[in-house]
Amino acid sequence: MDSHANSQETGSAAAREDFADPRDGSVNIARVALDRHVESGHGVQVALRWLGKDGARRDLTYADLRDLSARFASVLRDHGLNRGDSVFVLMGREPELYACALGTLRAGLVFTPLFSAFGPEPIRTRMEIGGANVLVTTAAIYRRKIAPWRDQIPTLKLVLIVDGDGDAPEGCTALGPALDAASPDFPAVATAPEDPALIHFTSGTTGKPKGALHVHGAVAYHAFSGRHALDLQPGTIFWCTADPGWVTGTSYGIISPLVNRVTMIVDEAEFDLDRWYSTIQAEGVQVWYTAPTAIRMMMRAGAEAAAPYDFSSLRFLASVGEPLNPEAVTWSAEVFGQPFHDNWWQTETGGIMIANQPGMEVRPGSMGKPMPGITAGIVDRTEGGLRELHDGEIGELALRPGWPSMMRAYLHEEARYAKCFVDGWYLSGDLARRDAEGYYWFVGRADDLIKTSGHLIGPFEVESALIEHEAVAEAGVIGIPDETAGEIVKAYVTLNPGFEASDGLERVLRGHARKRLGAAVAPRAVLFRKSLPKTRSGKIMRRLLKARELGLPEGDISTLETDET
User: Fold this and answer.
1) According to the model, what pLDDT value does residue 484 have?
2) The dihedral of CA 104, 414, 347, 138: what is its sign?
3) Which of these, 456, 481, 455, 477, lies nearest to 466 by C-alpha position?
4) Sign of CA dihedral 324, 325, 326, 328
5) How many structural domains comprise the chain?
6) What is the mean pLDDT of the chain?
7) Is 516 domain-assigned?
């Protein structure tokens, strides 16, 4: 693997909890997440409660999920797949997805989840980079998105189809009958802590997506951070709304909750306000982990939409994906009786690095403090290396490497990976500041920072001010070149129901921003849109707004979910 992984022993002793199998010293995520609990007498506990789009329900106990994952591992073995081979899964949130993920890890293969909504080209690009040997998908997705170019992926040996009654497209294998015929006796392979386990793709502003590689030893930090950042305890009813195609949906939608022996709620359907509120009430959800985009959609519907529901089961609410606006924190405290707790991490970090942990004072707009054992800093790049900045100064958020869930490589891009590490720091590419009490505040991506008339402006600050106005549902802010000021601030907003775009409202919003931020920081123009371009994880794609404004190349837009219209 890489030299950075052990360059500095960060992470507390608790974060390096010993999950080694006492029989051989191996660490296999599937064994830690499933077998361990079954062997200790908890096999009858519900591990996964699946809610179908059509109202169907299915409970899988820890014993059920262990057996299903073992059968999937047997299917892989029976088809000649070997340890280290690569399994891609392209499907919705079906129970089989979770069995495939854990069965892949059990067998010592490498699991890569993809969004089922991806188009053919993003799928193909990722499968080529990852050297896919197995693809698990549905018949419809296969026929529409895979079949035309399948033969052009020479590494692809097996395509498993999850739906249907035993029928599968030509050249594919029906997974259901294969699982029924497979052996449930497949002990977890004795993988070492540094053996590859997961690949998550993350998009850059230019070029192809990056494949971040994570190892089995990451499970120690998944377990630790789930307990300390999300209050996951044995028996907790936990709902992570993220799709496993996004790293949150795997780290905290599969691994961390199962390792901590919770009962996971998995909803097949996409966001629907009443369905979500009903699910919390009916299932007695205790810990809820979701994204700012969903929270803003709830805010847009108003407190009255939440009034008929009982949220008394909730004890902890958390948010991730992009910074959580202060207004959303205040709103959630009023509507749910407690605030959403923002946290920060990246695909590359593999787990939560900075968080508003349970019991901490929540400062609206702050992403919290570093997790126990994580050393963070604010740095500035200079010709001689890095310079650490003082409290209150804006710079790049950096971490001391060495925590267990840190990525070990970008696939086939050693130079790109090496550039992430300078002078004993991992450089995140995010700009932030730290206050005197140690709270960290997100400013923006380094390439999102706006420089106008000598001022450095983070778009998040301007967006948060705009969202405070009752008319604004979402906002995206960019800098536009200007001969005099260098750049000027331009905002794109979507409106809440009951408000119509007009010149008068545009003036009102600019005036509101000037009052809150001052003339130097406030946007010079506000444009109205029906929607803003966002990734499937909910991040507003500011670079895409800017590229379209300036007629520049759009770069990788394979994770684009919604587009401006």
Assistant:
1) 66
2) negative
3) 477
4) negative
5) 1
6) 90
7) yes
